[in-house]
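Limitations
The structure tokens in this dataset are predictions for the assembled complex, not deposited experimental models. Users should treat interface geometry with appropriate caution, especially where small molecules or nucleic acid strands are included. An illustrative entry is reproduced here so readers can see what is and is not provided.
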Amino acid sequence: MRFRPTLSLAVWGVAILVTFASAQIVPLAIPQHVEAGSTFSVSTEGSGKAVLYIVGPGQALRHDVQLGEKIEFAPGELHNAGHYSAFLVGPSSTQTAEFDVIAAQPSTLSFLAKPSRLPVDSHAGISGVVYVFDAFRNLVLVPTDVSFELSQGRGAAQTRTVATNNGVVWVKLDSASQAGTAQFLARVGGVAEKRVIQQVPGEPCNLRMSAHKSGAWVEVETEPLRDCKGNAVPDGTIVTFIERNNGAESTVDVPLKRGVARTNLPANDGATISVATGVVMGNEIRWRP
Amino acid sequence: MTKSGRAQAVAPLLVACSMFGTLLLMSGVEQPAVRVANTDSVGPRALETQTTSAVIRDYLAAWNSLSHALDENDAHLLDADFTGLAREKLSDTIAGQQKLGLRTLYQDRQHDVHLIFYSPEGLSIQLLDSVEYDVQVLDHDKVQATQHVRTQYLAVLTPTEVRWKVRIFQSTPE
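Predicted assembly:
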């Protein structure tokens, strides 16, 4: 049921009036803040039977109580963090209160590391976002230090410690200059989460080829391809050779094999041969047999 | 950004909120007052006006779903607007209410929304909402009590195929 505008005010008005008219509303003695999952008790006064309701979007509880006795909450009974309304509805009065259930100690981390694969030497190329939760999966909103560590087999690890703000923290780190697998760790006290980041070679640097005669053909071959940090460009990377001769153009795409790309082109006297891979242009050769 | 530039950036958002409000009013649903704070500083990623409008629209729709779902004790009504942890926890609340014979009516009256964090990869957005709502408890369809509540909610929304869904929904002491 969702309230209609005209009906809604009337319904709420009547409900509040009825509540006031039929019962005296007095405050209920309940702690202002309760840690999620902890035990706590609520004192009551008077005599007779009553019902205690504790409601919030996070949880709804109902306890039959004997007025004058303490109402005990067992460990883990109220475990979802949030704001709660409490109503103790007795035979002659209704006592109300509001209180907050706050998250317990950090217990789990939700760690999102992006991307999982990127080129070496990328400035602020790796991002890590951490949400800190307690054992009941409540977001821990108390500022909490989170340590990040990005490390590779050899070389110094990058470390950063940042406090959470409203339960979340983020960092941006550089990828290493050496290709390989890096471990990206986020830690809060004894709780840690690990992600793996694959750092791959960047764009090739100094793409150079040589050409020599091979029968009726000219054989062209690149030097071993490396990125600007000296990492071998992975096999399978496509290298394109282009031969231009009297307005005609021949193109050959060759996958890198054992670090080099090699192919045969028609040996046309005066032809121009160029090489490229990705956005990188290599040298150009004018063929003279 | 200059003052006039900021005003230009906020204008479409205000128009979108007004249009959303008009649509709600036309549909007969009582409309909470909504205020959206300046979204200039949300962390590592720039926030476009269209994104802000979509997030606010979907967050307010989530309150509507929550209200229906907890009133009717029907967790399926959460599907369109909640996902992950938030959906699981609200479903648990509904299951608890069903078991106890309870229903709760939530009528949001006012939202003061402040977007505070947009993650670097654009996969989550976090907001704080100083909200006012009325809550009514019914035990086996008999009204037991009502209360006007003022508190602050923290929500994390994540993008899905066509809309933003609430993934974390938790009130925080103001």
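Some entries come with short summary sentences. For this one: Chain A touches chain B through 49 residues (CB under 8 Å).
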